[in-house]
Amino acid sequence: xxxxxxxxxxxxxxxxxxxxxxxxxxxxxxxxxxxxxxxxxxxxxxxxxxxxxxxxxxxxxxxxxxxxx
Length: 69
Prior knowledge:
Layout: E1 7-11, E2 16-20, E3 28-31, H1 34-54
Antiparallel strand pairs: 1-2, 2-3
């Protein structure tokens, strides 16, 4: 799988970790631990790529670290 940037943060409101892959719009996941959220975002990225490939949509090339947040 290509290496996309992933942002992980603790959500006090949700009482869990949240993760986002900014280069894959809408690709997010959550988990109670860092291990859980890491596994969940990896699965979400795989599914995002699979679904968009099946639909014939372009899959962006990973750009690496974003220069803004």
